[in-house]
């Protein structure tokens, strides 16, 4: 059953409001489609555009004063939602986030790298801020497998970039797609006094549907055991 014009407007407004609220930033989306496009650029402009977050940096986690160094390598592309069979489907992104915690296995022991990864399914970017979400591929409890990260690309240069992650200073249980924390960890020199590049955020217009469409299904429960979130 399709929605009326009034209902459809409410659904789009609600979806956009929820997503932008999760970002913690209320900037307007890019409006490139409203500007004249040069003839030579028309072919490129006709192609679908994607939001993306890319980069690599050590950050300083303020919640761990003894071993604060964390490294996040992100390569995420896509959008917060897509339209399938006239229905909004949240999660229209792909990519990977790799993360490393350089610390000892036991107090007083030698520090070593502890790597994990996230399979990305959600990207939302506006201005210099982005939310990236996905399913952790390392061994964590089922209700902590949904991970959400935030990224801030500073206009003052990459050494002022920041990011946040959902198992840091927030409750990691039952995270939902797009509900990221504030970017609480500043980019810093790592454990080897090494500064890596930083993060690049690129926004794009939201894929707002036209015509009749249906609202999204209710999200899966936070066990994340449904078929489409199995490790892979």
From TrEMBL:
Residues 1-30 form the signal peptide. Keywords: Signal. Residues 223-232 have a biased composition (Basic and acidic residues). Residues 198-232 are annotated as: Disordered. It comes from the Bacteria. This is Uncharacterized protein. It comes from Actinomadura fulvescens. The lineage of its organism: Bacteria, Bacillati, Actinomycetota, Actinomycetes, Streptosporangiales.
């Amino acid at each position: 059953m399709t929605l009326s014009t009034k209902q459809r407007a409410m659904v789009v407004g609600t979806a956009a409001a929820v997503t932008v609220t999760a970002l913690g930033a209320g900037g307007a989306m890019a409006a490139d489609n409203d500007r004249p496009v040069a003839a030579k650029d028309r072919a490129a402009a006709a192609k679908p555009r994607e939001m993306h977050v890319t980069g690599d940096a050590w950050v300083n986690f303020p919640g761990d004063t003894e071993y604060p160094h964390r490294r996040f390598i992100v390569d995420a592309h896509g959008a917060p939602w897509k339209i399938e069979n006239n229905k909004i489907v949240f999660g229209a992104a792909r990519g990977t986030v790799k993360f490393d915690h350089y610390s000892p296995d036991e107090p007083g022991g030698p520090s070593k790298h502890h790597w994990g990864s996230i399979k990305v399914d959600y990207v939302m970017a506006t201005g210099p801020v982005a939310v990236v979400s996905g399913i952790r591929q390392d061994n964590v409890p089922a209700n902590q497998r949904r991970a959400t990260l935030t990224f801030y690309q500073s206009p003052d240069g990459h050494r002022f970039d920041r990011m946040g992650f959902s198992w840091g200073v927030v409750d990691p249980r039952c995270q939902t797609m797009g509900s990221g924390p504030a970017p609480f960890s500043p980019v810093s020199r790592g454990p080897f006094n090494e500064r890596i590049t930083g993060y690049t955020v690129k926004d794009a217009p939201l894929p707002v549907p036209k015509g009749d469409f249906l609202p999204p299904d209710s999200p899966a429960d936070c066990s994340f055991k449904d078929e489409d979130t199995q490790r892979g």
